[in-house]
C-alpha cells in the first residue's frame, strides 16, 4: 500500500447506502402523510398543514438525494465526515409534528 491512499476500498458505497436509507425514510413519511390526509376524519387545518409540510420535506429529501450522495462520497473519499444537522433537525421536527398531530387527533376523535 505504499503508493495507494489508505482508506475505504469503495468510497461511494457507504454514502450510497445512507442515501437509499434517506430515500426510504422520505417515502415512508410521504406515505403516512398521504394516508393521514386521505383517511383522517374531518378536514382539520392542522392535519392539512402537517400533512402538506411532511410531503414537502419528503419530496425535498428525494429530489436532493443524488446530489447529496455525490457530495458525501467526495468528502468521504477525502477522509472528511459530513453531518447533515439541519436536515436531521427538519426531519425530526416533521416526524415529531406528525406524531403529535396524530396523538391529538386520536384523543379528539376517540371521545
UniProtKB/TrEMBL annotation:
One Gene Ontology cellular component: endomembrane system
Residues in the signal sequence: none
Subcellular location: Endomembrane system
Keywords: Membrane, Transmembrane, Transmembrane helix
Highest rank taxon of the organism: Bacteria
Membrane association type: Multi-pass membrane protein
Pfam families: DUF202
Transmembrane parts of this sequence: 21-40, 46-65, 85-109
InterPro entries per UniProt: DUF202 (IPR003807)
Domain DUF202 span(s) in chain numbering: 10-72
Protein name (database record): DUF202 domain-containing protein
Amino acid at each position: 500500500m505504499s503508493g495507494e491512499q489508505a482508506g475505504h476500498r469503495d468510497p461511494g458505497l457507504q454514502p450510497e447506502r445512507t442515501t437509499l436509507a434517506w430515500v426510504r425514510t422520505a417515502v415512508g413519511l410521504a406515505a403516512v402523510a398521504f394516508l393521514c390526509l386521505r383517511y383522517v376524519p374531518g378536514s382539520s387545518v392542522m392535519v392539512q398543514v402537517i400533512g402538506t409540510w411532511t410531503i414537502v420535506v419528503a419530496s425535498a429529501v428525494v429530489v436532493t438525494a443524488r446530489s447529496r450522495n455525490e457530495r458525501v462520497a467526495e468528502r468521504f473519499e477525502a477522509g472528511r465526515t459530513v453531518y447533515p444537522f439541519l436536515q436531521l433537525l427538519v426531519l425530526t421536527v416533521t416526524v415529531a409534528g406528525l406524531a403529535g398531530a396524530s396523538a391529538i387527533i386520536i384523543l379528539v376523535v376517540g371521545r
